Amino acid sequence: MRASESAALTMAFMRVSRTVLIEHEDVPQFPYFKVGSAFLVRYNGAVFALTAHHCVKDYHADQIRIPAVDGGRDFLAFNKKWVPRGADANDHLDFLLLRVDPGATPGYANIGASQIDRSAVARARDLYRPGATLAFSGFPGEADNRIDYDGLSIRTQRVVSRVQYLDKGARPHTHLARDVDRLVTNYGSLSGSPVLSANASGADVAGLVVRADHSTGDMLFLDVAAIWSALQKTTV
Predict the structure, then answer these.
(1) What domains can be seen in the chain, in order of their start residue?
(2) DSSP state, 156?
């Protein structure tokens, strides 16, 4: 990957990838803990947060906290939740969409998000070929990604790593890739990370990480067609 492509991907990830927190009552003075990663997409003029369902399935939607701005302390507000039927038992349905409420979200007009539409789905098809270089970005369970309860702060450090496309997965709309850079020692909290590919104007969305195995560096991700189909259903 050329330096210009790497820089374009890093900028794209900074615009759209976020950490996923849960607000709880166990530590009243700073009631957060981290459960995964997410990214922001735009469809029909609306912004949605997208993450892996298994990361947040044990919590209510009103407990989910995703920063409005990368590294910020203001959180997105949501006005609609959509989970595919069967998400608990099927990898190819393991995702959650939250529609961002423009009237209740600070700085909504400046939120960066990846456009998902018919052309994005068409471009992504060319990315799913053995040997193709993609990249993911998330907030793994590393020492620098934690809640500092003493300092009352949220510490986040994004990891951007190249992956090589391997093959289609066993279930519809799933794909296999392998982490090439192996920058991560703990793959926990990477579920929900976006998978992107550099292009001349920035980056194309390739999918969403569902699961990753640190022992092999292999990961399973959902493709853009599955995301686009879900977005269409949220407007029905």
Answers:
(1) 3-234 (2.40.10.120)
(2) -
- Nearest C-alpha neighbor of 91 from the set 149, 170, 6: 170
The residues that bridge with 18 in the sheet, in sequence order, are: 38
Neighbours of 26 (CB within 10 A): 7
pLDDT (0 to 100) of residue 140: 80
Of residues 58, 52, 108, 53, the one with CA closest to residue 79: 108
- Out of 28-32, 74-78, 232-236, least confident range: 28-32
Amino acid at 175: H
Work out the burial of residue 94: count CB atoms within 10 Å of its CB; fewer than 13 is exposed, 13-18 middle, 19 or more buried: buried
Q: Which of 13, 24, 172 is nearest to 84 (CA)?
A: 172
Q: Which of 168, 200, 161 is nearest to 37 (CA)?
A: 161
C-alpha 66 chain-centroid distance: 11
CA dihedral 46, 49, 52, 53 (to 10 degrees): -80
- Smallest CA-to-CA distance from 113 within 161, 68, 83 is with 68
**Per-residue pLDDT tens digits for 117-146:** 999 999 999 999 999 999 998 888 764 555
Please report, for the chain, how many H helices and E strands are present, in that order. Answer: 4, 15
- For residue 144, the Cα-to-chain-centroid distance in whole angstroms is 19
Provide the CA 92 distance to its chain's centre, in angstroms: 15
Give the residue with greater pLDDT, 208 vs 199.
208
Residues 6 or more apart in contact with residue 231 via CB below 8 angstroms: 41, 43, 44, 48, 97, 116
